[in-house]
Write a structure and sequence with these properties.
Elements lengths: L1 H18 L4 E9 L10 E4 L4 E4 L5 E6 L5 E5 L6 E4 L7 E5 L21 E4 L8 E3 L8 E6 L5 E12 L5 E11 L2 E5 L6 E4 L4 E6 L6 E2 L3 E7 L12 E6 L8 E3 L6 E3 L6 E3 L1 E7 L2
Parallel strand pairs: 1-7
Antiparallel strand pairs: 1-4, 2-3, 2-5, 5-6, 8-22, 9-18, 10-17, 10-19, 11-15, 11-16, 11-18, 11-22, 12-13, 12-14, 12-17, 18-21, 19-20
Length: about 280
Amino acid sequence: MRSKQLHTTLFFILFLASSLPGQYKINGRILNEETGLSIPYVNIAVPELSLGTVSDKNGYFEMELDNRSRRVIMSSMAYITTDFRASDLAFGKTVYLRKETYSLPQIDISSRLLRSLPRRLGLKNRSRGPSAGFGSRQLGTEIGTIIDVTGEYLVQSAHFILNHAKGDSLQFRLNIYDYKNSQTGEKLIKEDIIINTGQTKGTIDIDLSEYNLTIRDDILMSLEWIDDDKGLGNTDISFDCKRGKRRHRGIFIKETSGTDFKPMSYRKSLSLCFYLMVKEIL
């Protein structure tokens, strides 16, 4: 009788363990369907769980889920977003993504139509003050701020004031979104802009002149955390803040791939010291 009870108890423990979250692992590698080359930093999301990650520089990914029936979405700039069942992504699955074709308008701006002196859009602090970090420890999390745009401008460069970072090899993805009616829209640059930096503090500068990006409406500009340097996480990564304008005050956080931006619940009067250098189109 005692042996039967022990057997029943062990069966129950094994059943419980198999039903706990994080017990079903998916992993594999993501490749370009046409070339067979790996695709780095692909966003991998399970929206119903607010769970996500990013593939590494060689296209490899790994994630733990609660069950095999979950819907997994893979998306990357210049590739068609594709859905999978978790059960199809186990045991080192090779995934192929197909290139997306974009029809972009031709932009031809004569130098005589640009104001000669550059202008700053966004906030830049003169002295160090408060700071804010990523709101999530999942790869694919983003931190961003809204930049007011009144007029038409050709973007020259983007700048982010890093307050502190423990790692010596940081990797971010720069994202610039259309922002209208309090909603984040599409990305305005249709290719990945990867930032590699080892700075512990100071300004990160990114030259954007080659993209011929013109803006005439408000944008949301963010940094996406895409690589965990030596397993240190992102809790020690922070960016300078200062009091923002009333119209678009706040710091916006995206928990991970496939989730929406939300305003940070504290420090509502602050905005990030993220800014663009632009030239006005006359």
